[in-house]
Design a protein that fits this description.
mainly alpha; MgtE N-terminal fold; Tetracycline Repressor, domain 2; 3-stranded mixed sheet
């Protein structure tokens, strides 16, 4: 959730950057942990996260020990990658974790507790006050990828008959309420009836009731709405927060814009990693052994597809032996097809993620990508034909490579658009596996079309 902006103190330490990193590292190496603790008082939690990511493992351990005794530890942990938080929490006592989560917003506290084993969660909840424990227990029943798992329960909701002057007094008396730019209007059963912006509240007369100035057309999401959809709603309607309701329209919480940004960032990172066959937990600071373990299975699959492409080439060894120039131009045909497929794949996956493409519009999207692929194939194939003719002095070789590029970019457009849509239809992640499947198609079809045409016209190429 958003944090209030504060003016930097005159004595604040330089934040971020190599100079500050050198200061932190030097203090940690010298064992001047009290000086490190004092510096933490002057650094924003978001900057502490960056420091942790850049420190060496031994330095990170000492820095973490200091951080856990600091009042801002919970805010920092809430913004760290999941794997790193899990590693840290293993070393922390239940009492310390209870102290940390009691100072966090409910949604962030619930996210931290979800990383622990159930027996630890139960023990920690017993250490909290009854109201906080009940709130966190309820939030953890919702999936982390849903609106219920994202929402915070620190919001301000008032009865429709509340007068504007009373509402302003309530705002002043609720310093912990999230997103005071919106005030939600409810009935006696907490059913959402309307919303009042801070601007409307300030401009209204103090004796007016909220029902007179509220907007009854409230954009809302359900508890089971996915994270991606919640982020899309906030982005599409330019909201600072969106209310979350249950099946009976009872207001349960709100999702703030910063959580939506986190969701968009996480989803973008996830898709980028999946397209490359990577695990989202594989980061710069991940130990080499762990990175090898996560990447090796996918690389073995890639090896299998490469062998398949080589197997296709093996059928034309005799042709290559007679016209060696075929081997020279093979990578160009395959490479252009792979690049074209990646472009089509990126556009389609983005469209699926943003809800721009559904199965009713799939045919149009596929035809568009095929058309683009063929057009690019004609343009680049013609250019390559001229280059091949000037380079090798053989017009027929130029024609062969031109035709092969057109065919392969047709395949690239078709598979780049169709594969993610088929995976979506099969209820699989379109980003996961699409790259390998599409590249296999373009490599095999590129080699087959180029070498096949070359073999058919072999007498003209010698």
């Amino acid at each position: 959730m958003p944090t209030p902006q504060t003016q930097p103190r005159n004595d604040s330490a330089p934040r971020g950057g190599r100079a500050f990193m050198r200061v932190i590292r030097r203090l940690v190496r010298l064992g001047a942990l009290e000086d490190v603790r004092r510096l933490l008082d002057r650094v924003h939690p978001a900057d502490v996260v960056q420091i942790l990511r850049m420190l060496a493992p031994t330095e990170r351990k000492a820095f973490t020990d200091v951080l856990l005794s600091h009042g801002r530890a919970g805010e920092v942990l809430a913004d760290l990658p999941q794997a790193q938080v899990e590693e840290i929490l293993v070393q922390v006592s239940n009492e310390r974790i209870a102290s940390l989560v009691s100072r966090l917003a409910p949604d962030k506290a619930a996210d931290l507790l979800r990383l622990l084993f159930e027996d630890r969660v139960v023990a920690i909840l017993k250490l909290l006050d009854e109201k906080t424990a009940a709130t966190l227990d309820r939030l953890m029943t919702y999936g982390p990828e849903t609106a219920g798992g994202m929402m915070t329960t620190r919001f301000l909701a008032l009865d429709r008959h509340t007068r504007v002057g009373e509402a302003i007094d309530r705002l002043r008396s609720e310093p912990e309420a999230e997103m005071v730019f919106y005030l939600y209007v409810v009935d006696d059963a907490m059913r959402l009836e309307g919303v009042v912006s801070l601007r409307q509240l300030v401009l209204a007369r103090h004796d007016q009731e909220l029902r007179e100035i509220m907007n009854p057309k409230v954009i809302r999401v359900r508890l089971d709405t996915s994270r991606g959809e919640v982020a899309d709603v906030i982005s599409r309607y330019n909201l600072l927060a969106v209310p979350v309701v249950d099946a009976g329209n009872v207001l349960c919480g709100i999702v703030t814009v910063d959580d939506a940004i986190d969701a968009i960032t996480d989803e973008t990172t996830r898709e980028m990693y999946r397209l490359a066959g990577l695990n989202t937990e594989d980061r710069i600071g991940t130990p080499p052994r762990e990175s090898v373990r996560r990447r090796l299975p996918w690389m073995v699959i890639n090896l299998g597809t490469a062998i398949l492409a080589s197997w296709v080439v093996s059928f034309f060894e005799a042709s290559i032996a007679q016209v060696v120039a075929l081997a020279t131009f093979m990578p160009i045909v395959a490479g252009m097809g792979g690049n074209g497929a990646t472009q089509a794949l990126t556009v389609i996956i983005r469209g699926i993620a943003l809800g721009e493409i559904d199965f009713s519009s799939a045919r149009r999207a596929i035809l568009k990508e095929i058309t683009v692929g063929v057009a690019i194939g004609v343009a680049t194939g013609g250019l390559m034909a001229g280059i091949a003719m000037l380079w090798k002095g053989n017009a027929m070789l130029g024609l062969v490579i031109c035709m092969a590029m057109i065919i392969n970019l047709f395949v690239a457009g078709l598979t780049g658009a169709a594969v993610p849509l088929v995976l979506k239809w099969l209820k699989l992640d379109p980003a996961l596996g699409s790259g390998v499947i599409v590249t296999t198609f373009t490599d095999c079809c590129g080699f087959l079309s180029f070498l096949g045409l070359g073999t058919l016209l072999l007498s003209f190429l010698k």
